Known about the structure:
Elements: E1 3-7, H1 15-23, H2 35-39, E2 44-49, E3 55-62, E4 73-81, H3 84-100, E5 105-108, E6 120-123, E7 126-127, E8 133-134, H4 147-154, E9 158-168, H5 176-187, E10 190-194, H6 200-215, H7 226-234, E11 245-250, E12 253-262, H8 264-268, E13 275-283, H9 292-306, E14 311-318, H10 322-328, E15 332-343
Parallel strand pairs: 4-5, 13-14
Antiparallel strand pairs: 1-2, 2-3, 3-4, 5-15, 6-15, 7-8, 9-14, 9-15, 10-11, 11-12, 12-13
Helix pairs in contact: 3-4, 5-9, 6-7
Amino acid sequence: MVKILEVFPQVAPDAxxxxxxxxxxxxxxxNFDPACLTAHQVDMHIVLLDEDDIPQARCSLWxxxxxxxxxxxxxxGHYAALNDEAAxxxxxxxxxxxRLQSALVLVGPMxxxxxxxxxxxxxxxPVRSFDNRCYPDYFLEPRNSKQYPQHFIQAGxxxxxxxxxxxxxxxxxxxxxxxxxxxxxxxxxxxxxTLNVAxxxxxxxEIFQLSLESFVxxxxxxxxxxxxxxxxxxxxxxxxxxxLVLLAHDxxxxxxxxxxxxxxxxxxRGEAIDTIIIKTVAVKPGRKGKGxxxxxxxxxxxxxxxAGYKKAIHAxxxxxxxxxxxxxxxxxxxxxxxxxxYKI
Length: 344
């Protein structure tokens, strides 16, 4: 007989979670930090236990602090399951909680908001430039069991949003449209420079302010505090190469930026690093920034090529946004991802 354990991390820590993650470590909680339940402001964490009280499936639910959805809803994240039967029972229980909260939709996987981990890898197509093989995981890419999307589909979830990553293997290729845009920006007094690591926090604060403006209309966008933003980027500060972080300025105003970093996953596999990951592109709304995103991408790729890199991954793009349009000029899809919803 299975049992359900409900944990309310904002009320009190749970001794079982501490035992499963630091003492008698359970497979379901391998590499899981229970402190994230409080840090991520989880409303309820659910654990499905077997007859021996061994965790078989888990997830967290949010309803107090979530992105704006099309209708009243809950967000489901921190998902893991050891088998199909446990997944079915866990997701049915999550639906029950959603009904008790008078929700009309349950969205997942998402660890509370889109600044954290969300969406499942759902397809890894053969890549022509990689000898028609599937491209391996890259640094900071979401990872999940191939069964997880099927768990959601079998539980009645359907796609809410689709995303993709693509790879460009022709970094040295010149684009005449970009050349014309660069000339236009130069005539407008817009200058490009790399990240100044000597004033890293100051640079991040300026980037944060632009991000608030640039991303406000993004799908499922949720604002975060400056401290939360700084904390996220300081975690990868040691991995950044200043020449791969490009900023566009008009006098003292930041108009756009691009964050890229080396694909450390190659090094972890014992390979030489020859690929960069284009993580974030942001442009200040308005006519003056028109075409700036394409120029930032082209310029970073050109600089990466000069530094000896051979490829660039355009990471985690929403299928309907500008980044995908920019990527289509250069790149080949290596991965597809899906965010699901369940209509209650």
